[in-house]
Specification:
Blueprint (H helix, E strand, L loop, with lengths): L2 E2 L3 H11 L10 E2 L17 E10 L3 E6 L5 E13 L7 E8 L2 E9 L6 E15 L4 E7 L5 E12 L3
Antiparallel strand pairs: 1-2, 3-10, 4-9, 5-8, 5-10, 6-7, 6-9
Length: about 160
């Protein structure tokens, strides 16, 4: 047996959520096999996913992203890849972020001097890491000579503060 939706504001919410231009098109009856779920404060529960990518060439520091000043930024994972030629010496590539007011290295790859190198590190955090608001997440390369390229990817989400 179908259940009747009697409250107009519920039909309007269904209509709005489903994108009906005319609220009268919203269903007035719901079959027994459909279970409606209504979130009262749904904007508190939705996270905004983020994926950002940036590349640093030779001895540079490049911003992957600047965290929002209002929303909280959480990282769930990251990837760092490097490619370097045989002439590169004394290299270090890293991803850094500000956590609790201090700059922290989240991952790094040390280069092998005078060796061709292609290496990737992929990290998935078991618990999301909260990054300070209005701070910069960087990918940094340092090399004395030669050519090196580091590609960084950060994955996570933005959350409205409680």
């Amino acid at each position: 047996m179908a259940s009747e939706i009697q409250r107009g504001e519920i039909r309007k919410k269904i209509s709005d959520d489903l994108g009906f231009a005319n609220p009268s098109l919203a269903p007035t009856h719901i079959p027994d096999y459909i279970v409606p779920v209504l979130l009262i404060n749904d904007d508190l529960y939705y996270d905004v996913p983020i994926i950002r990518t940036e590349t640093a060439i030779n001895s540079t520091s490049t911003a992957i992203m600047t965290t929002d000043s209002y929303y909280e930024t959480f990282l769930t994972g990251l990837t760092l890849s490097i490619i370097k030629d045989v002439t590169s010496t004394s290299i270090l590539s890293s991803i850094t972020a500000v956590i609790g007011g201090a700059t922290s290295t989240l991952t790094a790859i040390a280069g092998l001097s005078l060796t061709i190198q292609n290496q990737t590190i992929d990290v998935a955090f078991s618990k999301p890491i909260k990054i300070d608001r209005s701070s910069v997440i960087n990918v940094t390369n340092s090399t004395a000579t030669g050519n090196v390229s580091a590609r960084a990817v950060v994955r996570g989400f933005l959350r409205r503060p409680a």
